[in-house]
Amino acid sequence: GSNFIAGVFIQAMNKKMSIYDAMMRGLLTPGTALVLLEAQAASGFLTDPVRNEKLSVKEALTAGLIGRDFYEKLLSAEGAVTGYTEPYTGHKISLFQAMKKEFIVKEHAIRLLEAQIATGGIIDPVHSHRMPVEVAYRRGYFDQEMCQFLSNPKNQTRSCFDPNTHENLTYTQLLRRCVPDQDTGLLML
């Protein structure tokens, strides 16, 4: 999975910047910035589009790519890839299992699953590979109700504000509006 929104490109200035930097400069709302960064974290790493680096959430905080205000939320999103530790047994569990046990809020879990689907498929936290929704369901990563919900595009969360058109869009819709960076190929809003 590599098709995620990596940063923001200001055409008039021919300048690219990180999502967090764009938020700090008032180009993105904090809510949209968080959704875009969570989607990156839920896909495996945070991206510095200026340096073309892929970082863990902890590394991104140290490098100044994100602020402490988003740190805990992005660590939670990163768990969608690495798995969550079940506090009573110490076993690794999937995002859906964490949601079912109420370690993570359902709406947040759905947003992270949607980001994984939009960027290449559901990530298996044990084997670290991606799979289609139907395969994830057959392997028991979520129940039939969640499979049907995630398979219906009409159910996608409109949690992304497009700063160019002022529309609320799904992550997938916003992703389609991005342009590839000429130097790195990363998708830029």
TrEMBL record:
One of its GO terms (molecular function) is keratin filament binding. The keyword Repeat applies. GO terms for cellular component: cell junction; cell projection; cytoplasm; keratin filament; membrane. The keyword Ribonucleoprotein does not apply. Keywords: Phosphoprotein, Repeat. SUPFAM superfamilies: Plakin repeat (SSF75399). GO terms for biological process: intermediate filament bundle assembly; wound healing. This is Epiplakin.
